[in-house]
Amino acid sequence: MDKYFSDDQIKHTIEFHGHQCPGLAIGVRAAEFCLRELGHNSESPIVAICETDMCGVDAIQFLTGCSVGKGNLILKDYGKIAFTFFRREDAKGIRIMLNPDFMGETRTEMGRLMGLADPTAEEKEKCTQVRAECEKMYSEADLAEMFIKQEPQISMPRPAAILQSLVCEDCGEMHMESRSRRFAGKTLCLPCFGKVEQKI
Description:
By secondary structure, the protein is an alpha+beta fold. Among the domains are: 106 residues, CATH 3.30.1330.130; 32 residues, Wheat Germ Agglutinin (Isolectin 2), domain 1. It is built from 7 helices and 9 strands. It has a 5-stranded mixed sheet. It is globular and about 60 Å long.
C-alpha cells in the first residue's frame, strides 16, 4: 500500500497530539479518507463532524486543516468512532465509521488490558505489545476494510457566523447570543441558566 502521508507529516501529527497511539492512527486514516475523497481545506473549505472526543480528532484537525476555532471542526461526542466530512463548494459529503469487524479480537483484547485496574507487569507489557500491534494494523489497513462508508446522516452545517454578544444579567459576563437563555425575564448565560433551571 502506498503511503499517503509523509513520515514528516506523521511525526508532526504525533508532536501536535503529544503521543503516539492507536487512536491517533485511526484519526490519521480518517483524515486520509477525507483528503482522498474531498481534498484539503486549503483547496476547498471542508467541514469535519466528529462523533467522538478520542485522540484521532487531533489528527483530523492537524491533517485536514479543520479546526474548532474556524467553526469547521464540530464535536458531537456520541462515543462513536465515526466522522462526517463535507466539501462546502458542492456539498459533497461522506460519513465513515470504524468497522466493528475490523481487527475485532485484537481490539477487544486491547480494551480488556487497558481497562485492568491493577495490571501485573506482564499484563502491562502485553498491553504495550497489543497497542503497538493495533496501531500498526490501523496504519497499514485498506481504508475500505477499516471503515464503513455511508451517506451523511446530517445536513451540512452552515458556515460560522459572527453573532451579537449579550451581557448575562446574573454574572455580568458577555456571551454569544446563540448561547443565551431567557429565564424569569432575564437574559442568562448557560452556566447561570443551569444554576436556576433544573430540567437541563
